[in-house]
Design goal:
This protein is mainly α. The protein is 67% helix and 1% strand. It has 18 helices and two strands. Strands 1-2 form a two-stranded antiparallel ribbon. α2 crosses α12, α4 crosses α10 and α14 crosses α15. The longest helix has 32 residues. The radius of gyration is 22 Å and the shape is globular. The two termini are 25 Å apart.
């Protein structure tokens, strides 16, 4: 393996932060797949007695189990988050930033768009309740919209841990990955006796998958031969087939995701190796001018798209239940063909939402003399954010929790304040150019 310590040099840091169109294109494609998959999963059903239930049509299909081995791209999100997160952390370090400033930036960028979502949902659902919409429909919409929150909790945990995990990775990359893998297996072994312990793997699994992104950022996968990469793909999938075939884990990867288990780490290994195999072709495709322009616009608003697409889908489905619009039964040909206009409608609804709320993903800046919040404020903000998110992820979202979550997120934003410009090293202040090199990322959140 290439020694990651070479990245502590200025030349190594410059090489580590060059924008890779392959990463941007894969992340954009994965986001489209998530939106499309949810359009095929969310299916509220209005019964003759007036009750409303939800049906997950896609999960009931026998052919979906093998297909989801390919389409379960959540581990790939964390691999790419590890690549860009490690680059951002090293860039911030080079500018004199600290781990708390990194956590502050990450929290602000994820919490601000989530705060707006929870506040709008709370106000909208309360208005619907006052207008006479049945409470069961209100709860259905709140529950469905909570699905993305587990990802927000997991992604936040992994991202704010990057400074610490990067230090472990720098000192002993393989030992760090091995310890995390051992912890995952240990938790999986005990989850039958202590079921609640399984949720600890929301930290261990996603941090381990994120470490794969660290290895990719350091060039480890780049320096492996094609036979080695094919071998990694084959062996990880073979082991995945063994542990699911003997019923240690479910064969359906959706069932393995919340709480996550060893299967997601094995998928992450396979997906990281596959990404490296296809990287040159993807990089060429991502360099096409019109694709690059599309990704440049959508990529900066990825969290807004992710957070809002499911509430919009659930809200649209809930409103259709109140009308005479045709509602074909799930699993019929009409229902499957109807997924196409549903997807188009969700994308159309996302456009004005992104225009209005997408700017909340921008990193707030401050004057160079501004002081950031104290470490206590950053830690408190993190706790204030995680409590309602974890409650919603574990117990479901309610109307009351929507309002409480919005208030907690607003408090966290106030605690985090504005991000101060990192203090530059003395040698930078003595006249050396501080402009980023051509083609380098300048956005800390990338």
């Amino acid at each position: 393996m290439e020694d990651p310590r070479h990245l502590e040099t200025p030349a190594g840091q410059a090489a580590a932060v060059r924008r890779d169109p392959a990463i941007d294109l894969v992340r954009f494609t994965c986001l489209l797949l998530v939106v499309a998959a949810h359009c095929m999963m969310v299916s509220p059903v209005l019964h003759r007695d007036g009750t409303v239930t939800t049906a997950n049509t896609l999960m009931d299909q026998g052919w979906f189990t093998p297909v989801v081995w390919v389409l379960m791209i959540v581990p790939l999100f964390f691999v790419m988050g590890g690549v860009t997160g490690l680059q951002s952390w090293r860039r911030l370090q080079a500018r004199g930033g600290t781990g708390f400033q990194f956590a502050q930036v990450r929290l602000l960028r994820l919490v601000r768009p989530a705060m707006a979502l929870l506040a709008v949902m709370w106000a909208g659902l309360w208005t619907a309740l006052l207008l006479g919409v049945h409470p069961q429909v209100i709860q259905l919409m709140a529950t469905g919209a909570a699905m993305p929150l587990w990802f927000l909790a997991a992604y936040l945990t992994a991202q704010v841990s990057i400074p610490l995990m990067a230090r472990f990775h720098h000192r002993a990359p393989w030992l760090t990955f091995g310890i995390l893998s051992a912890l995952i297996i240990t938790v999986d072994s005990l989850r039958g006796a202590i079921p609640v312990l399984a949720f600890v793997n929301m930290v261990f699994v996603w941090c381990a998958v994120q470490q794969l992104g660290f290895l990719m950022a350091d060039g480890f996968f780049q320096h492996r031969s094609r036979p080695w990469l094919f071998g990694a793909i084959a062996s990880s999938n073979l082991l995945l087939g063994v542990v699911t075939g003997v019923a240690i884990y479910p064969g359906n990867m959706v069932e393995n995701i919340n709480p996550p288990n060893l299967c997601l780490l094995l998928l992450g290994i396979s997906q990281a190796a596959t990404l490296q195999l296809l990287r040159n072709g993807i990089r060429w495709l991502g360099s096409v001018r019109w694709i690059q322009a599309l990704i440049a616009v959508a990529g900066r608003r990825a969290m807004t798209v992710y957070l809002w697409h499911l509430p919009l889908l659930v809200g649209m489905a809930g409103l259709l239940l109140l009308t005479d619009f045709p509602k074909p039964s799930p699993e019929t040909a009409e229902w499957w063909w109807g997924r196409i206009p549903v997807f188009v409608a969700v994308v159309a609804l996302l456009v004005p939402v992104v225009l209005v709320f997408g700017r909340l993903e921008n990193r707030p800046t401050a004057a160079s003399h501004a002081r950031g919040p104290s470490r206590t404020a950053v830690v408190t903000a993190g706790v204030v954010v995680f409590l309602p998110v974890m409650d919603a992820a574990l117990n479901g979202l309610t109307l009351a929790l929507l309002g409480g979550g919005a208030a907690c997120f607003a408090l966290a934003v106030l605690l985090l304040g504005r991000v101060p410009t990192p203090v530059l090293p003395p040698r930078k202040l003595l006249g050396e150019s501080t402009l980023p090199a051509q083609g380098l990322r300048a956005n800390l959140e990338s």
